[in-house]
Amino acid sequence: MSTAPSLPAPRAGTPLPDGLAAAASPETAPEVWPLTARTVEGRLHVGGVALHDLADACGTALYVVDEADFRHRARLWRESGADRVHYASKAFLCAEMIRWVDSEGLHLDVCSGGELRLAVDTGFDAARIVFHGNNKSVAELEAAVANGVGVVVVDCLEEIDRLARAAAAADRVQDVYVRIAPGVAAETHDYMATGGDDVKFGFPVRGGHAERAVLAVAARPSLRLTGVHSHIGSQITATDGLTLAAERVAAFVALLAERHAITVEEIDLGGGAGIPYLPGQPRLEPATFTSALRAGLERVLPGSPVRLAVEPGRSMIGTAGVTLYRVGAVKDGLRRRFVSVDGGMSDALRPSLYLARYTAWTANRPARGEPVHAVVVGRHCESGDVVVPDIALPEDVATGDLLAVPATGAYHHAMASNYNAQPRPAVVAVRDGRAHLMVRRETPEDLRRRDAHGEPVRLTTG
Ligand SMILES: Cc1ncc(COP(=O)(O)O)c(C=O)c1O
């Protein structure tokens, strides 16, 4: 009779590989946790609410948002020296978030008809909205005009034509920014770099594309060019690229004035300020971000009255968010311990998409023991379904524990899917010991409602 060999456990005390992320509490790495996160008698609290109580009340996986953290960062952006601050709604959006943005006096950047609709339906003043997107439909452009959107950022020549027609048909003059690609490669993941010459966004300055786009706008009586826009990428922590992009955009604005007597009132240099995801990583502070842009503008356009707009997303809401999971299984592999939680790539896509890294901490009790090399994995049918890649987790993290993953406020709920028919988690805001629901948990019934059971499709031809 043969017995199956048992897998050697990745024992505590075994030397850990270099570069492993440390499990980090709010006390050891406050930079990655929301402002109000605390460990109280070994249990994690955010906004004065015990996360284990929230898990009992709302279930897991669960997104938790610290309202005080968001409002603090919104204020830092307002005071950063930019003339106008748009919250980039792609990072995280729902009706309650729109109300928070409104109450903080911010403007809103949307990039789809859906985001626009949500903002308008929530009562956000459309004149304070800037509308992005590299492939807006005619219906979306018509909706922008009809709702009185403040600025539409045009991204291709066909769109200039379509927007001009939509505005003329509505007897309106639509304010427009032209998005340009200044040829600056941001130091970030390739998927988050958007300012180089070979990207789908904007008109390259090189080769005269951007200049021709501006002239195309100027030739349309129903459009008014008010600004030039550029966004070189996301999760940027060094300022050199930002200053260089500002210089290039300013040089383009100077060229428009000299060659065509076209005056630009506003330069929008996008978002992209980076946040710490792991202990010890830097944060690009709002004032540093804005000063770097101002330095570039001032070098090329000294004393110019041109206004500066910015569009932070991650930097405003990323650190406010924590995702709470319940550990369902712990299994020792040959090299690593696999800690399986009740979510995964359907609520946390960034590790699979960009190999993004995170830390974690137990929320229900202090975890103890020597650190072991672990990976926190989800419950989906993909081996790339990872929530926290390679982390040194205390040895006694066990089934039934609650794991909290910080820095998940941006691009988590916004990128969530129903992979494996997984209903999307709820989003709960916490503040001063109270919790309120921002987005309810999806139910299997929500998913079933979309099933059409073979309903016939009416074809228009044939
Ligand atoms: C045009 C534009 N503005 C702003 C942002 C927000 O970037 P972040 O969330 O990194 O600040 C993005 C992100 O993709 C963007 O494409």
Q: What is the CATH architecture descriptor of the largest domain?
A: Alpha-Beta Barrel
State the shape.
globular
* Model regions low in confidence, pLDDT < 50 over at least 5 residues: 1-8
Helix percent reads 25-40%
Cα(first) to Cα(last) distance is 69 Å
Family: Belongs to the Orn/Lys/Arg decarboxylase class-II family. LysA subfamily.
Cofactor: pyridoxal 5'-phosphate
Pfam families: Orn_Arg_deC_N, Orn_DAP_Arg_deC
Keywords: Amino-acid biosynthesis, Decarboxylase, Lyase, Lysine biosynthesis, Pyridoxal phosphate
Description:
- Pfam families: Orn_Arg_deC_N, Orn_DAP_Arg_deC.
- This is Diaminopimelate decarboxylase.
- With 462 residues, the chain is of the alpha/beta class.
- The chain has 2 domains: 21-65 and 319-447, Lyase, Ornithine Decarboxylase, Chain A, domain 1; 93-317, Alanine racemase (TIM Barrel, Alpha-Beta Barrel), CATH 3.20.20.10.
- Helices cover 26% and strands 23% of the residues.
- It has 12 helices and 22 strands.
- It has helices at 51-58, 67-78, 95-103, 113-121, 138-147, 157-169, 209-218, 240-260, 286-300, 314-317, 350-354, 444-448; strands at 21-22, 38-40, 43-46, 49-50, 62-66, 84-88, 107-110, 129-131, 151-154, 174-181, 203-204, 223-229, 266-268, 307-310, 321-332, 337-341, 361-362, 371-377, 386-394, 402-406, 426-431, 434-439.
- Strands 1, 5, 15, 16, 17, 18, 19, 20, 21 and 22 form a 10-stranded mixed sheet that branches.
- The longest helix is centred in the middle third of the chain and has 21 residues, at 240-260.
- The protein starts with 20 loop residues before the first strand and ends in a 14-residue tail after the last helix.
- It binds pyridoxal-5'-phosphate.
- The site of pyridoxal-5'-phosphate has 18 residues, from helix 10.
